[in-house]
Amino acid sequence: MTHLLQEKKELFHPPVPFDPLTDKLYSFDFTDRNKELAFEQIADTESFSEYIQGNLKKHHCKYGIGGYGELRTLYARSKHFDTDTEPRRLHLGTDIWGPDGTRVMAPLDGLVHSFAFNHQDGDYGATIILTHHLDGLSFHTLYGHLSLNSLKNLQQGSWIKKGEVFSEFGMRFENGNWPPHLHFQIIFNMDGWEGDYPGVCKYSEKEQWLINSPDPDLVLQMNRYIIY
Description:
The protein is α+β, with helices and mostly antiparallel strands. Helix content is 16%, strand content 28%. It has helices at residues 2-7, 39-43, 45-58, 206-212, 217-220; strands spanning 25-27, 63-66, 88-91, 94-97, 103-105, 110-118, 125-134, 137-146, 159-160, 165-168, 181-187, 200-202. The strands form three sheets. It has an eight-stranded mixed β-sheet, covered by helices on one side. Strands 3-12 form a two-stranded antiparallel ribbon. Strands 5-10 form a two-stranded antiparallel ribbon. A hairpin with a 6-residue loop joins strand 6 (110-118) and strand 7.
């Protein structure tokens, strides 16, 4: 299934306003290799936001990006990622870090599959899932950490055109208490989920989750523009 997305990569519209000729991307590392980011900063959303914005400003980058398949220490900040056995720490999407209010556009024509306000601390906050059909392949894209305004007047089954602005990055009180960013994830099988789908899994179960949620850059086509 991933080979078709790779073959059709030129069809996808960027989900955020980005001009590769003028805009730069900064690659964030939120594993234990990042020694400059203390847990106390991660646990405090205001401090975490200052870290994000400080690095973007320092490196003259419009957005920060990264995280797919990343074993992240930052999820220890919220009990939302704890389980009775092994905590969830492996990230299944790509995060695009930028200002709240950043416009989000559909990469391909699609239908609104579902949406919800997942308001638990550390969760997605406002979330929208689209369904796309491409040469016989059905797949879904998930957009997490949006604004509550993005959910207004939304209806399941509504048609969203390729390139249409349908949502925006949310602020901390509406995006799960995170610095403003977009969690973008590809999902082949929703397994009955609506308005939500795990964006972080147990490391011991990574193979099955990564197969169902392949590298978002198949659609994003942004990693090639990372400068730092």
